[in-house]
Amino acid sequence: MAGRTELTTLETVQESRSWLFTVRDRYGEAEEAILVPCEDGVEGWINRCMHEPQRLDVGRGVAMRDDEIICPRHGSMYDACSGACDNGEAAGTRLVGVDVTVEDGRVFLTDSIYQFDHEGGLEDDGEADENESDEDGDGGPSSTSHISF
Ligand code: FES
């Protein structure tokens, strides 16, 4: 029931075409979510393809074409408004929705399960989010590898 949290503005989502944020589910697990424009305004989805645990927005914004979200791994396309996919590897699936409401051009998170945590993605470097084997301390910024050539 909780309240609602203001996320951003409709204009921002429409201009940037996607907006990445992090939520926590009822178990306190953090998940990334995205806002994308759709004809009614904005829709919210968990930032994960339903075929494999692949982020749709890998930190550079969601790739979209004709109001469809394109999975960067195998190219399945999801309807930005319904979350449904009818093509490619993810055919027959639907993205996990995150309830948002638009009011006076402002976008609010109004989901009964997901609560706002912070703007942007999870702190990790964006490969698999599924492994919970990390002991979730707090601190260790899992160091982005220093690549030296
Ligand atoms: S991981 Fe998205 S279509 Fe395969």
Automatic annotation (TrEMBL):
Region of interest: Disordered: 118-149
GO molecular function list: 2 iron, 2 sulfur cluster binding; metal ion binding
Domain spans labelled Rieske: 10-109
Segments of skewed composition (Acidic residues): 122-138
SUPFAM superfamilies linked: ISP domain (SSF50022)
InterPro entries, alphabetized: Rieske_2Fe-2S, Rieske_2Fe-2S_sf
UniProt KW keywords: 2Fe-2S, Iron, Iron-sulfur, Metal-binding
Family annotation (Pfam families): Rieske
Descriptive protein name: Rieske 2Fe-2S domain-containing protein
